[in-house]
């Protein structure tokens, strides 16, 4: 019943149900494994229904699921369900978009859980993470070496932090 509410038409119900499900995931852990197919179908369908705010909660629910069930997620049928919408969002978001943070955090958990199942996605994810880190460092150098640093916007170091976390997830997986 809770998963049905995740797909409710009311945004507030979606938000409450998705948050509640993330809490359930933390408690249930591997007890969710027999239901992974249905859970993933529901969460993936939510990508087509959710708007901005609830998408962030959905990323959290997916990341928490990956943390909770771990390597049990590393099955081709689960990977083929889960990865296309995540990679689609990854491709749509620009490097400077703050919505990239929760997606990177989610992907970090997913990469760790999928282990070798994440290999097909490693190269583009690795490249973009390195690029995000380089951009942050270059902005920092520009600002530090400038005669008038106030004319440059301070780099958002969170981009570098979440990119490093995701690289760590790739290394763990």
From TrEMBL:
Predominant place of localization: cytoplasm
Domain of life: Eukaryota
GO annotation, biological process: protein import into nucleus
Subcellular location(s) of the protein: Cytoplasm
InterPro entries hit by this protein: ARM-like, ARM-type_fold, Importin_beta
SUPFAM superfamilies membership: ARM repeat (SSF48371)
Keywords associated with the record: Cytoplasm, Protein transport, Repeat, Transport
GO cellular component: cytoplasm
Keyword Cytoplasm assigned: yes
PANTHER family given in the database record: IMPORTIN BETA
Protein name (record): Uncharacterized protein
Naturally occurring in which organism (per UniProt): Pectinophora gossypiella
